[in-house]
Each structure stands twice: as structure tokens, then as C-alpha cells.
Amino acid sequence: MATEESASVMDDYETLISTTDVELLKRAWRNEKAAPEILQFESSLVQRIKEQIELAEQNVEISEANNIDPLTVSLYQMDLDRTQFLLRSYLRVRLQKIEKYLFYVLKTDEYLNRLSKQEQMFARRCTDDLGSHLDETVLAKLPDNYQSILKQSITSEEDDMVPVPRLDTFVICKAKQYLSGLDFEPEYSMEITEMERDLLTFVCYKFIKKPLENGKIDLV
Amino acid sequence: MANYYDIDSILVEEEFVPVVFQKAINGVKIDESTEKGYVEQGSKTQLPFWLAHELHMRQAVSIGVPACFNQKTRLEIQADAACVDLRSRCPYFYEFGCKLAPLCDKSIGLLLAYAFRIRYKEVLHKAHTTAFAAASRFLMLLTKEETYMYEAAQSSMAAFKKWRMGGPRLQRASILGRKRKPAE
Amino acid sequence: MAGQSDSTMSLFSSEEIEFMAEDEMVEIVPNLRMDSLNFICGDYGPFYPQLAAQVPIWLALALKKRGKCTIRLPQWMSIENLTQVLEAERDSHAFQPLPFHYVEISRLLFDLAREDIPDMYMVRSLIEDIRDVRFHKVETNLEKFTASTVTWKNMSAMEVNVIRAFAGRALQAFYKHDNEQQTPDTDRTLDKQPQIPTDRPKRNLKPR
């Protein structure tokens, strides 16, 4: 047992030191794309990537100016393009999710805290714009009790007009290490008791929410 | 509540159900021929689900089993579920059944699960192997949910085949690379 | 909201899967001398003529396109290996171990590094056969779906992607049907208490 554990610890350590930022960004992008709800913004990762992109852009400009071999320059440009694609796609997927669940994100602290400062600003501006648009076109013309954008009528017990992310969608995932029952929420202990490492699994998203947040699972 | 803007959710609730009034109701009439606005206890009529549900919550009506889940349909499904034209019974057969089951007849749930399990296999095969033209008659029998499933499979397959043929790979859009000022 | 509903948001296009596959490593034999490349995604090189090196496929193809290297066929793509894999696929219900991105890698190499593949047509036809047998297994496995968690060993990226949309919907439907017999429709659990608003205007009920 001891040797197995230390072997897997070594695996993890090696993975940690050899995983580049691009790999991490790719992972974050994949997870974000596959998950039905918005995930935690990887602010330090994004910051580092942005800095590396800027550096690379400057390098390319300087190289072009100094007539460095065009082949080399074009290869650096390709690497730059690939990284930029990942970053842009990552940010774009998040924005799409925010737009889709606009009101819910703003009123749920759990989700609001997962957004970056700029995303929060975006969300607020969107709700203001959308709110005033719906107000002008429809809501203000309805009778008094029905003018809310969140509740169908003032007698509704909760915000029944707000779309909610569906956590019961099925996703495909791989565990990075062996997961036992303890890694999952106890309320799902009947549904899922363990997960082997590196095995493709179709599973209901809400069952694996906890290990995903802990970084033990990757969505595919 | 999560589906306020979802067209399919709205349409599901437009399906009609038979109801029996448990109380006498003033101020409305269900039969155009009567003069006064009054419904007697025990009267029967068909109401859209959204309305029947609300009244059921107030214990004003009891909800019966609509035609699409009746004995005849059940027998047909048991005989050969894959060939039953569920779309003409009710295009939202499953969604409607799910909403209805807790209110009037829990066995509807079992019927839905059974029918789905069998028809799913048909959809699976037709979606991944047959060309669209050949399957079009089959498609006419499918409910909305089954149709979405079929279309999902078809479009995935088509996208894959298109990729396999080769073609333009991911390219840099020409608009990128120009810096924009951040909006305040 | 109505305008932005995009259920395809969670789907990966084949091109995106290929993009990820392009990061897989492959061996090249450069015919030029080049200093190390310090990319954002990692460091590669320096390159010496005739000395084999490991680089990501996108880099290998870029160099190949400009005639600066040849690409060594990955070991798993040899005719002997593929023939063995094909036989094993045919004989067994399980999926044989193949690189996760085998479909994308082979297509990239066929399209852009044709000359470097001895007996290319043979290799290609073996891979197509393997893919067909495996996809048939995918369908057979899909038939056995139930509401519970499903695991698949050795399935590849492209195979997973092709059935992702369909399988997701199917599993969700199974889950819903198998569970709604235990729990009532959750949409309504919250307004179980009858609401009797006093100031709602009366309306006439019109039957059809």
C-alpha cells in the first residue's frame, strides 16, 4: 500500500512540475466548455497566459523588424495563435454561459464569486440593458402586479422567470486518480461509489461536481 | 420555473386533460348553451394542463387520464412500441406524461420508461446508420424529445464526416490582432 | 434567455478535437539546423540535421510543409501493429488500447505527410476498418444504456465526440424516467400551498 501511495504521489508531483500553463489553460477550457454551470475563473492562470502572450507578441514584432529567419518567426506566430485561440475560446464560453443564465448568476453569490471583475461588470451591464429593454417593450405595459423581470407575478414565491443551469445533464469525464466514496457528496453515495483512474465515464454532472471543483476530475 | 422561456415547456402545458369539478364554481361557464355562469360539482370538461394544474392545487378539480395515455395506446405500446405513432397521440408524450403522472396516475411513469427504452434503440440505429431520406417515415412517428435525440446524432455524424473529408482547418480570423480599447 | 439559447455550447467541434490532438508528440527527422524554440507551450529543439527529435504534431506539420523535415511514423501506426489491433478488435467486445487521438493523428498524417508513410493505402485502410469495427461496438454499447453511470475503457476522443450529444440526451431522459417515479415533479414542489390571491381579476373560462 505504502509504495503504491508514494508512487501516485510522485506521479502527481511530476505532473505538477511538468504541466505547462498552456496545458492548464487547455484543461480549464475543456472543463468550462463541457460543464453546464459556470466554473471558477482561473484568474492567476489567465494573468500568466496574458503576460506570456504579450511577451511573445513583442518577440515576434522584434524578430520581424530584425529580419530574423521568417520560418522561425512564423513558428513563433503559430504558437502564439494557438495560445490565443485557447484563451479567447475560454473567455468566450464563459461569456456565453453568463449571458444564458444572466439573472441567476447575479443573484446567486456562489456563481457571482466565480466571475472575474470584468465578467461581473459585463453581467451587470447586460442585465441593465436587457432589463430596460424588456421594461420598455413589454413589462411596463403589463398590469402592476406583473411587471417584474424575475417573478411572474408578485404572488410568486420565488423568481420563477429566471432560467437555472441544469445540473442533471450528463457529461463525460476522466478521474485523474482513483476516487473513493469520500470524494463525492454523501447524498449521491447511492448513485456513485468510486471511480477508477483514467476511465472514460458518462455521469450525471451533479454527482461529480465536488471532485471537479477539487481538481480530481477532468471533463472531456 | 427554470423553463420560463423554453417554448417546448410552454407547449407541453397546452395539452388538454379531462377534469371533473370537485366543487361548484361561480362566475364561469363551461357550456356555452347555459345562460348563467355556474359550474356544478361533478361536471366534466377538457382543460389545458396549466389551468387544470392550478385548479387541482386548489382542490377544485380532479384530473383524469387523457386519451394519449389510454388503454388502447398502452396495448399498442406493449405490442410494438417502436411502431406506434406517438407524435399524433401527443408530440410531447414524455414531457407531458412526466408532469401528469404525479397528479393522476403513477403508472404512466412506467409506461413512459418502457416505451422510451424500446424506441430509443430504434432511434439509435436509424440515426447512426440510415440516410435521412430512408428514415423520414420513421421520423413522423417520433415525439419532440425523440426527434431532438435523432437530430443530435445526425448532426454529430454529419459534422464528423465533413471533417473527415478534409477542408479548411482552424485559421486566424483577420479581424484579430487589432487591439481594442476596453469599454469603461 | 430566448435569444441566446445555445444548446451546442457544450459540444466540441471535430476541428476543436483535432486542435487538441495537434499537441500530441511525434518524432521528426529535421534536415536543417535550428536553435531552440521557446514557445509559450514549451521548449523544443535545438534541431540538428538527421538527428531525430520529439515535437508536437502541429510543429511537425508546419516544418514538413516547408520541406524542413520528415515525420517518422508512430510505432502504433505500423502495419504489423494495426493488423494485430484489427484482429483483436474483431475478436473481442472490448475496445483495444489505441492512442486517445488516433483518428485525428492518422488523418493529419495522411493528409499532410503522405510521403513519410510507407504503404499509406494499406495503413489507411486498416485504420478505417478498425474505426468501423469500433464504431459498431459503440452502437452496441449504446444499446445497453440505462440511467446509471456508464464507463468505457479505451474509447477515443473522436468516437466519444460523435456520440456525445446523442448519449447525453439519452442518458438524461433515462435518468428522468427512472427517477420521476420516486420523486414528484420538482417544478411544483415549491408551490404546493394553494395561493389564493385576492386581487386577481376574474376571468371567464372558455372551453374549446
UniProtKB/TrEMBL annotation, chain A:
PANTHER family: DNA REPLICATION COMPLEX GINS PROTEIN SLD5, SLD5 PROTEIN. It holds the Pfam family SLD5_C. Belongs to the GINS4/SLD5 family. One of its GO terms (biological process) is DNA-templated DNA replication. Keywords: Coiled coil, DNA replication, Nucleus. Residues 39-66 form a coiled coil. It is found in: Nucleus. The GINS complex plays an essential role in the initiation of DNA replication. GO terms for cellular component: GINS complex. This is DNA replication complex GINS protein SLD5. The keyword Zinc does not apply. Its main location: nucleus. Residues 69-128 form the GINS subunit domain. It comes from Populus alba x Populus x berolinensis. Residues 165-220 form the DNA replication complex GINS protein SLD5 C-terminal domain.
Automatic annotation (TrEMBL), chain B:
One of its GO terms (biological process) is DNA replication. The keyword Amino-acid biosynthesis does not apply. Residues 69-163 form the GINS subunit domain. Residues 5-56 form the DNA replication complex GINS protein PSF3 N-terminal domain. It comes from the Eukaryota. Its main location: nucleus. The keyword Transcription does not apply. InterPro entries: GINS_A, GINS_bundle-like_dom_sf, GINS_Psf3, GINS_Psf3_sf, PSF3_N. It is found in: Nucleus. CDD domains: GINS_A_psf3, GINS_B_Psf3. It holds the Pfam family Sld5. Belongs to the GINS3/PSF3 family. This is Uncharacterized protein. It comes from Populus trichocarpa.
Automatic annotation (TrEMBL), chain C:
One of its GO terms (biological process) is double-strand break repair via break-induced replication. Pfam families: PSF2_N, Sld5. Residues 76-168 form the GINS subunit domain. Residues 178-208 are annotated as: Disordered. Gene3D superfamilies: 1.20.58.1020, 3.40.5.50. It comes from the Eukaryota. One of its GO terms (cellular component) is GINS complex. The keyword Cell wall biogenesis/degradation does not apply. Residues 178-191 have a biased composition (Basic and acidic residues). Residues 14-71 form the DNA replication complex GINS protein PSF2 N-terminal domain. Its main location: nucleus. It is found in: Nucleus. Keywords: DNA replication, Nucleus. Component of the GINS complex. Belongs to the GINS2/PSF2 family. This is DNA replication complex GINS protein PSF2. It comes from Populus trichocarpa (Western balsam poplar).
